[in-house]
Amino acid sequence: MTSVLDQVLLHNVAEAERTGQGDYRLSRVPADVRERINEDAQKRAFNTCGCEIRFVMKGEEAAVLLRRAESEAAAAYGLAEVYFGMFQGMYAETPVPVGTDTVAVTIRRPAHMDVLKRLAKEQGMAFDPEVVRVVLPYDWECRLVGIEGNITRPRADQLPGKTMVAYGSSITHGGDSVQPTGTYAMRTARRLGMDLINMGSAGSAQMDEAMAGYIAGRKDWHLATVEMGINVIRLWEPARFEEAVNRFLRVLADGAGERPVIVTDLFRCIHDAAGNPRAAEYRGIVQEAVQKLQSPHFSYISGLDLLPDYAGLSVDLVHPGAAGHELIAERLVAAVLS
């Protein structure tokens, strides 16, 4: 019997486990890695930030059935988005609120697909518009219930040739970006014409050695970004932070080879507004750790330079708002291309 998973490409999903309720629980991190990272990060591995259900339609209509797992989420609903390659779906079909009741994300094949394909080819777009991308909510565990329609997996030549991986806090995860495709990680990858592996871990980016080893050991990425500090600045003394940062970067450097890695620290935030001296100390620790690697493939950029003013923040003065995410992406791209 053909499984629903045989019909689609689950992007940024390491494992899909069938539950007793008949749906699929998606994890961005394999079980053998999950068990070696901190407890909160183990839970966040099931949050579907950067995860997509991808397929090519052979018929005129398809539907992806989703639901939110029961949990204490930040909001009652998340948003799923629909894209045809780089082209956003029509406003009548995207975004779709996803709650704990099963919802159908209905996709209809555009009548002028030939024009979309021609434009994508002429402009060198990273995705073939034939590839339907259902981008899942980023801020909690989203379950795949089922798929309806005549569909097939996309071919490798219909997808970006290069991939970026992003590690960091809830900011990398997507907090306050409004929509899944609005995260700075997603916007950076899009601007660079790359695919994205999002390893953000809301509230739990503790620079676990196992996570560094997992990222370093993956051979499917070409650029990495690492954001460190905001999740532990209230919890750890600088000496503990320094130890974790140095260990994480050393492990990453050992496996990254000649692949470029951009390292940053705390984006401008409430600790700067309050004059907390630990913010500057933490940034100094990260900068020095990158310098100690003496690697031409690792570069450091201060979070203050990526988010230059407070207007880019949401009212919690920690998470960038939509404009802040876009600005971070713009500056990261400039750093990559410089």
UniProtKB/TrEMBL annotation:
Spans traversing the lipid bilayer: none
InterPro entries: SGNH_hydro (IPR013830), SGNH_hydro_sf (IPR036514)
Source domain of life: Bacteria
Domain SGNH hydrolase-type esterase, chain residue ranges per copy: 166-327
Protein's name in the database: SGNH hydrolase-type esterase domain-containing protein
Pfam families with a match to the protein in the record: Lipase_GDSL_2 (PF13472)
SUPFAM superfamilies registered for this protein in UniProt: SGNH hydrolase
